[in-house]
Design goal:
Strand order of the largest sheet: 2-22-19-24-17-14-13
Structural class: mainly beta
Shape: globular
Number of strands: 28
Distance between the termini: 39 Å
Strand content: 35-45%
Helix content: under 10%
Largest sheet: 7 strands, antiparallel
Length: 379
Amino acid sequence: MRKRIQRRSFLQNLTLGFSSVLLTPFLGSARGKNSSKEEKETMKKIIRTKALGFQWETQDPFLFCVHHEDNYPKGNAQLGPDTSLEGRYLGQDFIVKDGWRMYHGTKVPGFPGHPHRGFETITVVRKGLVDHADSTGAAGRYGNGDVQWMTAGKGVQHSEMFPLLNQDSENPLELFQIWLNLPRTNKMVEPHFKMIWGENVPRFTHKDQSDKSTEIEVLVGKLENHASPTPPPDSWAAKEENKVAIYNLHMEAGAQYTLPATSAVINRSIYFYEGDSIKLDEDTLPYYHAADVVSNRDITITAGNETCKVLVLQGKPISEPVVQHGPFVMNSREEIYQAFEDYQRTQFGGWPWPSSDHTHAKDLGRFAKHSDGTLETKS
């Protein structure tokens, strides 16, 4: 009973950071049919820019993106911080103190068991490790370049804890979590997760005319002659014509890279998250800002006087109504009410782990245990 109350309390707390939102389908920029060829040639490639906060605004088919960066201290025997937690609002610790946060964790930082329905999470771990456990019995430990792609579908509970394995050195963590919507036809599919191990992420280096380098990771989709592993079968990204892609660019100071044009119907956003400034063609984009750009024209990204890092999200919009409340994303308010009712009744299969903030044994390496019993292990 106590665990059930804790889970219910966590769900209530989780929804505080969100509001019920009804979004109309993305319609794009309207341009007159009689626009002259000259006007089209001189049309700016940047549709709009926006400052970035903790939760990054995205375009359809994405729902949002969060960039976590925490400089965790040495770990203790319980895989939590080996330092006092006094002065932190444990359970809701989202304010950076001493360079890190506990989030919803009370002993180990991270996000204890919570439900999702109707969309996918794509978790890109740049540094550090994440321990996954879920209501289907699946589990995993991944990080340091790995990508976990989870289809919540009709409903799943999962936990995402950040085990601090190093007891003699710091435990830095950096990750992106990107929510990708599911179309109406796939919102109630069976839950599923797939690992894209760091060793399998396509990476290549582009040298510009000044011999400056841009290192590019094709985390999702295709770029030039490089293609990432296939998405989960029920994802919007599984259909190649939807051109869903996620790229990460690490640019040497002064380096240039031209992002090639794609279909005009694709929504494309460029997120500048590290460095001093970049240029998109001739327009300057300040640090920690994003730009929605025209997708059917090449755009040249130029790094400023420091090393710059850029994330690119793109995809064909689903163009369906979106109603979100906390961890549930559906097409109508009635479906949201049903999601809450189903969760309260079934707990989406229940929680088979000893605690909602379960972490795996310290001596385990990277692995993924799927709900069908399939086991993947990495060094």
